[in-house]
Amino acid sequence: MTPTKPIEILLVEDNPADILLTEEAFGEAHFPHRLHIARDGVDALAFLRREGPYAGAATPDVILLDLNMPRMGGLEVLDVLKVDDALRNIPVVVLTTSRAESDIWRSYNLHANAYIPKPVTISEFVEVIKSFGTFWFATAALSPKERP
User: What is the average pLDDT across 122-132?
Assistant: First the structure.
């Protein structure tokens, strides 16, 4: 099943090289999407709450979240998201370089929906994004944006 309208994805990532790589990988994944970028947790929460320059922002269907960022890291963002009634149903996939068991455990303890260590090579990264797209947008049923 291919989505008929673009999937809204919020990438929360501070590394410009990783942002570019993610954009390229999604371009090669060939499913309709719009990738929005927040460069740290503070910007991500402003985007999600439609504050300031994000007043007209779309509600994402899924969030890709790095852990290690300035101002507010990914674990702090997860902690805020999952207790917020308006935001807690948005699936959060941690996409990070950390392979530390403590980061994996804490992410799931804070109700991350998945934890994906960033692959080392570009081709592996593209394959991960394709698999991510297939699962989240062709297999899984996403939460409705409005309460039924």
Answer: 85
